[in-house]
Amino acid sequence: MARINKGKSTLYVPIFVTVAMLLLLIGRIYIKGPFQTLLNPDAQIGWKTLGDLERDKDSYHSSLILYDFSADWCQPCKRMDKVTFQASDVVQKVREGFYPVKVIVGEAHEKKSVTDLQTKYSLYSIPTFVVTLPSGEWVYQKRGFFAPKDFIKMLDNAKAKSYFVRAELKLAKEDYKGALAELDPEVLSGKKTIEDEIPILVYFHTLKMLGKLDEAKAMVRKRYDFVYSKKKGVIQANAKSLPWPLPFYQYLLGEIDQEKLNNTSSVWYQKADISSAVALDALANNRKDIALKSFHKAAESAYYSSSDSFRLAELFIKELEP
Questions:
Q1: Beta carbons within 8 Å of 281's beta carbon, 6+ residues apart
Q2: Which of 18, 38, 114, 182 has a 20 to 30 A CA-CA distance from 252?
Q3: Between these two residues, 64 and 36, which has the higher pLDDT value?
């Protein structure tokens, strides 16, 4: 209650009233800082269950599926619920293009479904975040705690990767023009480079099947020259063999044959890449029997990983098997 100072007309407001008014005002203002923009407690992402996912399968065809593998005993999971998933930027990003599914590891009534997903995506720790296409194809996977800014970056990376996975799907169905339309035009124009072998293989095979072999080889040659320059010291020290992935590029360029490529590595993920390259080469020559056999080899090599090699092999096996 305001009181009047005796002999003066000025009103004095008790300090606790002033503080209370300031707190109310601050509560109406977004708080900026290392955790981005915080929301009111009632503004949530709106996580779905695996049951919701099955029931709504006809309504999220344009969204990516975002799985949050969590548990009641997981402290980093609880921290993300309190901080990251209360950030308005995160909530907006998820709502714009993702169907969010909270998967509680160890929950009795969904135990089999959860176990199946853990096996499918090779999960061995939580929190883990998996992004898939609506049809279930794996796109992106990360584990651990993420502050809001880092989580948004992860979602952006997953969305960009989803176009490449859609290109793989169309490639497996022999829709080469459709695959080309999904690929990054900056990569195709040479403005942006690709670093991983499976993406290079997908771009190469797509261009090759569209009669653009010269463009495909030019892209691989550019990458070969770059890697060669970076590994020149290693090459000079061991002139007998080129370090990985240079033999992989040589195979695509037609400079070494399949037998020599097979002898360049015994590392599982490199063997998976080799088998995938051989498989796509067989497809280009209409040898589907050899392609299927090689894709099975790629899948076996990469079986215990969620990797580009494993996904590519699975997609083609699904299309090629009778």
A1: 258
A2: 182
A3: 64
